[in-house]
Amino acid sequence: MTASETQAQAAPNAPNMKGCSKPSDRDVLKQRGQREVFCGLTSIVWLHRKIPDAFFLIVGSRTCAHLMQSAAGVMIFAEPRFATAIIGEKDLAGLADVNEELDRVVGRLLERRPEIRMLFLVGSCPSEVIKLDLHRAAQRLNQSHMPAVRVVNYTGSGIETTFTQGEDSCLAALVPHLPVADAQAPSSLLVVGALPDIVEEQFRRIFSELGISRFDFLPPRRSTELPAVGPSTRVLLAQPFLGETLIALTKRGAQHVFAPFPLGAEGSAQWFEAAATAMGGSELEARNVLARYRSRADRSLSRYREILQDKTLFFFPDSQLEIPLARFLSRELNVKLTEVGTPYLNRQILARELDLLTPDVVLSEGQDVDRQLDRCRAANPDIVVCGLGLANPLEAEGIATKWSIELLFSPIHGFEQAGDLAELFVRPLVRRQALKV
Amino acid sequence: MELTMWTYEGPPHVGAMRIATGMKGVHYVLHAPQGDTYADLLFTMIERRDVRPPVTYTTFQARDLGSDTAELFQQAVRDAHERFQPDLMLVGSSCTAELIQDDPGGLASALRLPIPVVPLELPSYSKKENWGAAETLYQLVRGVVSAQPQSETMPAQDAGPAPQPTCNILGPTALGFRHRDDVTEITRLLGKMGVAINVVAPLDATVADIARIPQADFNVVLYSEIGRTTAAWLKRAFNQPFTSTIPMGVGATRDFVREVAELTGVQPNIAELERDLRLPWYARSVDSNYLTGKRVFIFGDGTHAVGAARIAADEFGFQVVGLGTYARECAREVRDAAKTYGVEPLITDDYLAVEDAITNLQPELVLGTQMERHIAKRHGISCAVISAPVHVQDFPARYAPQMGFEGANVIFDTWVHPLMMGLEEHLLTMFRDDFEFNESTLPSHLHAHAAGHADRPADTSQAPLELEANAASADALITVSWSDDAESELKRIPFFVRGKARRNTESFARMQGVELITVETLYDAKAHFGR
Question: Mutate which of B95, B175, B370, B529 to disrupt the A interface (most A C-beta within 10 Å)?
Answer without folding.
Answer: B95
